[in-house]
Amino acid sequence: MKKIIILLAMVLAFGCKSTKSTNPEIQQTDTVQETISKKVVEPNKAEIKQSIQESMEYLASDELGGRATGSEGIELAAVYIENFLRKNHIQPYFESYRDTFKLKDIIGYNIVGVVEGNDPKLKNEFIILGGHYDHIGLGKEVNGDNIANGANDDASGTIAAMEFARYFAESKTNKRSILVTLYAAEEMGLKGSAHLAERLKNEGFNAYTMINFEMIGVPRSSDMSMSYMSGYERSNFAETLNRYAGEEVVGFFQQAKEFNLFMRSDNFPFYQSLHIPAHAISTFDFTNFDYYHHVDDEPDKMDYDHMASFVAKMLPAIEGMMNAETKEVVLKDE
After folding, report:
1. What residues does each domain of the chain span?
2. Helix orientation angle between 156-171 and 45-59, rounded to the nearest 10 degrees
3. I need a surface site. Which of 16, 37, 68, 217 has the fewest CB within 10 A?
4. What whole-number distance in Å separates Cα of residue 226 and Cα of residue 219?
């Protein structure tokens, strides 16, 4: 997300309130519950937590120097992600995992893998899952440390997308195909995701929906929904996910609308180029983490139990949506 610190100060002065929805539409029907129980392979939260922490401790380590696009550190991150995808049988979508782009004298790489769907017809439709694996590199020095590690922003979202792809590659329960997309140059103005979205458009890519995971490393207050979705009112995506989850895993957050976060994260280029329901999901709400673009955004500040729970709760929501016989998620008139 781009800097919005000035707006943040104004919001905090008036306070932020969000409560869980009592909308009866998210109550689970017997039919939905039966569908989920038949299709979802129960996730192993302990295994998810271990895998998340292992990835985080490398991607947000000092060794990677803050993962600025074009740096040696982001190259190490790219290699790590490629190896993760390869190890977990997630195939490259293009000839290699890399979608290469150039910004003046800087070479950037999006990492793109695919998990093919198991339905002869629906596998031709794609669900895009993503997060940006770059960060700002160096930040303002604090106690001799000037490496902005970018654990929450956005190693956390990158790792969530990787974990969803790992789960489906192993369970093989997805009818539609999954494109897992990790972007560079988000911090330079969404340049990596914009390049990939335009490339997919030009190639006639058959995209159904897109979810971008942005800063999911810390939990929200217990009286709020687990996460919120940018552009909440632009589609019925949130209510569809909540119906399959059987609870409000994704809520409305007023500040997301006020800050226009829909246009500030890597979902937006996919909405623009492919004109599909494309949103960012986050658990960072400006009150629960003090280290945005700060050198203390480090692995030891992440809540790994929360991250594992986030992945586990989102799995049936994503799986139900991606396995529905019809395209339930649609854009709303604006």
Report:
1. 5-323
2. 140
3. 37
4. 7
For the ranges 28-32, 42-46, 86-90, the lowest mean pLDDT is seen at 28-32
Alpha carbon separation from 239 to 13, 33, 256 (Å, rounded)? 30, 16, 17
- C-beta of residue 281 within 8 angstroms of C-beta of residue 213: yes
The tokens for 148 are 């902005």
Taking alpha carbons only, the member of 147, 9, 158 closest to residue 77 is: 158
For 130-173, how does the pLDDT look when each residue is reduced to its tens digit (9 = 90+)? 999 999 999 999 999 999 999 999 999 999 999 999 999 999 99
CA distance 312 to 70: 33
φ and ψ of 29, to 5 deg:
-85, 160
H or E element in which residue 102 lies: strand 98-103
Indicate the CATH number of 5-323 among 3.40.50.10710, 3.40.630.10, 3.20.20.80, 3.30.2000.10. Answer: 3.40.630.10
Structure-token match 């695919």, residue found: 114
Instruction: Compute how many other C-beta atoms are within 10 angstroms of the C-beta atom of residue 4.
Output: 18
For residue 177 the two structure tokens come to 């195909």
- Return the closest-CA partner of residue 20 out of 235, 225, 285, 326: 225
Residue 80 confidence (pLDDT) above 70: yes
Residue 276 backbone dihedrals phi, psi, to 5 degrees? -125, 160
Q: CB of 226 within 8 A of CB of 248?
A: yes
Q: Report pTM.
A: 0.89
What residues pair up with 192 in beta bridges, in sequence order?
A: none
Task: Give the CA distances from residue 150 to residues 26, 136, 171, 277, 278, in Å, rounded to whole numbers and listed in that order.
Answer: 34, 8, 30, 27, 23
CA–CA separation, 92 vs 54, rounded Å? 22
* Segment holding 78, helix H or strand E: helix 72-87
Contact 243, 298 (CB under 8 A): no
Q: State which amino acid sits at residue 227.
A: S
**pLDDT tens digit string along 306-330?**
999 999 999 999 999 999 999 999 9
